[in-house]
Design goal:
The complex is a heterodimer of chains A (about 260) and B (about 625).
Chain A: H1 2-28, H2 32-45, H3 48-60, E1 63-64, H4 66-78, H5 82-95, H6 100-112, H7 124-133, H8 138-161, H9 165-198, E2 201-204, E3 209-212, E4 221-225, E5 230-237, E6 240-244, E7 250-254, E8 258-260
Antiparallel strand pairs in A: 2-5, 2-8, 3-4, 5-6, 6-7
Helix pairs in contact in A: 2-3, 3-4, 4-5, 5-6, 8-9
Chain B: H1 7-27, E1 38-42, E2 46-48, E3 52-59, E4 64-67, E5 74-89, E6 92-105, E7 109-113, E8 117-120, E9 123-126, E10 130-135, H2 140-165, E11 166-172, E12 176-178, E13 182-191, E14 194-202, E15 209-213, E16 224-228, E17 231-245, E18 249-253, E19 257-265, H3 271-276, E20 279-287, E21 291-296, E22 311-320, E23 324-326, E24 331-341, E25 357-359, E26 363-371, E27 374-387, E28 391-395, E29 399-404, E30 409-414, E31 418-423, E32 460-461, H4 470-524, H5 528-547, H6 556-565, H7 570-588, H8 596-613
Parallel strand pairs in B: 2-10, 12-21, 22-29, 23-31
Antiparallel strand pairs in B: 1-3, 3-6, 4-8, 5-6, 7-10, 8-9, 11-13, 13-17, 14-19, 15-17, 16-17, 18-21, 19-20, 22-24, 24-27, 25-27, 26-27, 28-31, 29-30
Classes of the chains: A alpha+beta (about 260), B alpha+beta (about 625).
């Protein structure tokens, strides 16, 4: 027994050290923000692979932001991984649909992919409406809606307690206007969220990928797409994804050739 | 020698020509050089049908209006072929002209070619007629075939001994080279026999090489003696080329094929032949042995970024003709590349010129010599530049990289940098004052992604969004909840307020009773004015409380409206109004219709009735 105890005690100390010191080492020095700043300085020095690794660590830590995805996209682009760059840019776009830099880089990266997909023209009303609900991020809309609703409520309260008729009138009408616009903003934010939820898209990560007419290896090849092309996901069936291109072509491709945005 | 002649006829012809030469030599003294002569000659007097021969009419002066004879019995293959020559010796100029025809005899027998005429200084000269004996020959086609057959036999007969007398060898100065390194390929002819004629059958297709012919070779083949395999040969370089391997690997140089007509000794047949020696011409085809060149690829290690495939040894020099100039004036920038190697394969130089300089495609001037020791020389790139804007510019050094075959390393050489000062240029006269001719579109040089976002990362948990979160809905609901609370609070206040009215209402009768009691007191004190005032106040106060109206707002109309709303019958209202009028009047003037006591009773009655009827 005594012998065992003696053997055990160094182990215990080791475990103690492991459990107390290691988490501190791993979390203490690698705060997401610190990692992010380090990655940015690597990028500035032109060490894109280092920058990419650090950005990925931030992501692996469970935190993200539009800026992080955007920078990840840039680092991937600089290391020559066009498909990953596009994937990250699109993810960034989802979080910040109104960011001009993201659009510019998507356009440039897209021009370097091998497939040229002309987008089918949209009805002008659709594109206007889209421009409205993609004009800010969902969270911005959320904050705006809260401000509007609270302001409207405050005016309504003023209406309840005001004695002067003019003040009462002004307070009532402006409260109605503010509350209505608050509701509209909530609706717009909801539209944006549902747009991104229903328009599931993916980036092709293999080259070349044969898009088939049915979810089976024996099916006919309809067309060939290459790495970096953006496709819309219609349906997922086990190993196969039904996709459609922006120009309207449809077909089935393997799950492993696609990464969802 | 391409004429196909049978063995027999060939010998005959040789004899004839010897005779002719002897005759001409003997006669030469008798002939005067100054006299204009017009002669006809044939290549052979004895011909066979179908055998081509040549008839020539020669004049040693200028003649005009040449009239050929009638060639009946002959077919003209070609002609007249006119040739003229002018020679000037010690101031004496002699001109000679000749007209020749290639003929074929059509029928056999003795045929005569008539006289040809020509006018010289108003004199008409004529040639002597020539007699030709035509024997029966083989039909043309068959004849040549047979001849060829015979010739082939002849070649086979002689191949054995000729293979040692005539060799063709391909030689390269290096067999292990780098890609792009120059190799000298020489085709050498080794011969111990007399060569009459030669023809190149097949030049090797040097696939995998860029070739340059060596050009400084003398026109005449230079013979030298060399010993090869124990035998002495006359050696000549038939063809020399410089090769540059285009890809790595073993590249085979295919054989070079030539056909020679070799004059070999033949046994003499008669005295003439013994005297002059006898020989025959033999056709013999030779091929060189293929050579394999091992080409190594250029090493990847240390390959400079701007390497464009130059191999050899080079130097570079740049020159700029002006250091200072005005805008829109021309500037010449020339880069001279000197060295040996694949200089001709260098296409463009990546010159770094300021973007504001208008650059034209360079003029490339080569002074390159292809010699046996390699392709060497210089290539000059002249760039015409036009600076369009004033300013101080620098033409960056031009870097040029090549692979040095002697050190087996990449070398990068650079020119020096030049500073150019561009002054303000003259404004052209034809430019109108309002035009923005001085402005230019901004040139887009390159495309790149926009840079990363620095600053606050704004990191959130993945998948977490403020919109739709509990906090969001709580905050959003707080507004309406606040409103609802406020609404409730106001309503409760109102309710409390409305209770005050009810209290007032309830207490109205009592207040009125107190006023009326006061009135009774005043009546007892005989104070009439105070009595009526008390009644008036009592009634007004009562109505004010009952109808929830301020005393100030009370008048006949509002009272009537208020009471009617509360379903009081008109009779009672009229009675009330009469009483009020009476009280008002009685305050200023004595009233006679009713006694004070009656008025008091009436007021009491009215209040009681309203109390009963009011809802």
């Amino acid at each position: 027994m005594k012998l065992k105890m003696k053997l055990n005690s160094p182990k215990r100390i080791l475990y103690l050290i492991l459990f107390t010191v290691l988490p501190k080492l791993s979390f203490g020095s690698q705060q997401p923000d610190a990692l992010y700043t380090a990655a940015n300085s690597y990028y500035a020095k032109g060490q894109f692979q280092h920058a990419l690794d650090n950005y990925k660590k931030v992501l692996a830590g469970g935190t993200t932001s539009a800026a992080l995805y955007y920078n990840l996209g840039n680092a991937s682009y600089k290391t020559g991984d066009l498909a990953s760059a596009l994937l990250y840019y699109e993810k960034a776009r989802k979080l910040a649909p109104n960011d001009d830099d993201i659009y510019a880089n998507i356009r440039l990266a897209n021009s370097k992919t091998s497939d040229k997909v002309d987008e089918a023209p949209e009805l002008f009303l659709t594109s206007w409406w889209k421009a409205v609900y993609l004009s800010a991020s969902a969270d911005t809309f959320a904050i705006l809606s809260i401000v509007l609703v609270l302001a409207g409520s405050a005016l309504l309260v003023t209406y309840f307690f005001a004695h002067a008729v003019m003040l009462k009138k002004a307070a009532f009408y402006s409260a109605v206007v503010l509350l209505c616009s608050g509701l509209a903003v909530i609706f717009i934010a909801g539209r944006q969220v549902s747009y991104f939820e229903h328009n599931r898209q993916g980036i092709v990560f293999n080259s070349p990928v044969a898009v088939k007419s049915a979810p089976s290896d024996d099916a006919r090849n309809l067309f060939i797409i290459h790495s970096g092309t953006k496709v819309s996901i219609i349906d997922i069936k086990k190993d196969w994804i039904r996709i459609t291109l922006n120009n309207g072509n449809e077909g089935w491709m393997k799950v492993e050739d696609l990464k969802e945005i | 020698m391409s004429q196909k002649i049978g063995k027999q006829k060939m010998f005959k012809r040789i004899k004839v020509s010897y005779l002719l030469i002897m005759v001409l030599l003997l006669c030469s003294g008798a002939l005067s050089a100054q006299r204009v002569q017009f002669n006809a000659s044939v290549s052979g007097n004895d011909v066979a049908t179908g055998e081509p021969f040549r008839v020539t009419f020669a004049i040693n002066g200028n003649g005009s209006r040449f009239t050929p004879p009638d060639f009946t019995g002959f077919q003209i293959l070609s002609g007249p072929n006119v040739s003229s020559s002018i020679t000037s010796i010690n101031g004496n100029t002699t001109v000679s002209n000749s007209y020749s025809y290639d003929l074929v005899a059509v029928k056999e027998g003795i045929l005569t070619i008539g006289s040809a005429f020509i006018m010289v200084d108003e004199r008409r000269l004529n040639t002597n007629p020539i007699r030709i004996r035509v024997s029966k020959g083989q039909p043309m086609q068959q004849n040549s075939q047979q001849q060829q057959q015979r010739q082939e036999e002849m070649i086979q007969d002689n191949t054995e001994d000729l293979s040692k007398a005539l060799l063709l060898r391909a030689e390269v100065n290096k067999t292990n080279v780098y890609q792009g390194e120059q190799i000298l390929l020489s085709y050498k002819l080794y011969t111990r026999a007399g060569i009459v004629d030669s023809r190149v059958d097949k030049l090797p297709d040097l696939n995998g090489f860029w070739t340059e012919d060596v050009k400084n070779q003398p026109q005449q083949v230079q013979w030298r003696t060399e010993t090869y395999k124990g035998l002495k040969y006359n050696v000549a370089d038939v063809k020399q080329m410089i090769l540059f391997a285009e890809h790595s690997g073993d590249i085979k140089i295919n054989p070079f094929e030539m056909t020679f007509i070799v004059r070999v000794a033949a046994p003499a047949r008669d005295i003439m032949e013994q005297f002059f020696g006898s020989y025959k011409d033999v056709k013999y085809a030779v091929k060189s042995i293929p050579v394999v060149v091992h080409v190594k690829p250029l090493p990847e290690a240390g390959k400079p970024a701007g390497f464009s495939g130059a191999v050899g040894k080079f130097s570079i020099q740049a020159r700029l003709d002006k250091k200072e100039l005005k805008a829109n004036e021309t500037l010449n920038y020339s880069v001279k590349l000197t060295g040996s190697g694949n200089i001709k394969l260098i296409n463009t130089l990546n010159v770094n010129l300021p973007a504001d300089f208008e650059k034209y495609d360079p003029k490339v001037t080569d002074t390159i010599k292809e010699e046996t020791n390699g392709v060497r020389g210089n290539r000059t790139y002249s760039y015409l530049l036009i600076p369009r804007r004033q300013g101080n510019y620098t033409i960056d050094p031009l870097e040029f990289s090549y692979f040095d075959t002697s050190t087996k390393k990449y070398v990068t050489i650079a020119t020096k940098a030049f500073a150019v000062k561009v002054n303000k240029g003259l404004v052209e006269n034809n430019v109108t004052a309002f035009s923005d001719a001085d402005q230019k579109d901004i040139k887009k040089l390159d495309k790149d992604i926009r840079s990363i976002k620095t600053g606050n990362a704004g990191l959130n948990k993945i998948g977490e969004r403020f919109y739709g979160s509990q906090g969001y809905w709580l905050l959003l609901l707080s507004g309406p909840v606040l409103c609802a609370l406020a609404f409730g609070f106001r309503n409760r206040n109102r309710k409390i307020n409305s209770d005050v009215v009810r209290v007032k209402n309830r207490r109205a009768g009592k207040v009125a009773a107190r006023h009326l009691a006061n009135a009774q007191k005043q009546l007892a004190a005989k104070n009439t004015a105070a009595f009526y005032e008390a009644i008036f106040k009592g009634l007004y106060g009562y109505l004010s409380d009952k109808l929830n109206l301020a005393v100030a707002d009370l008048n006949k109309e509002s009272i009537v409206d208020g009471l009617k709303d509360r379903e009081i019958c008109d009779q009672l209202i009229t009675k009330l109004l009469e009483t009020l009028d009476l009280c008002e009047m009685a305050r200023y003037a004595p009233v006679t219709q009713l006694s004070e006591l009656e008025v008091l009773e009436k007021a009491k009655g009215i209040i009681n009735e309203i109390e009963d009827e009011i809802k």
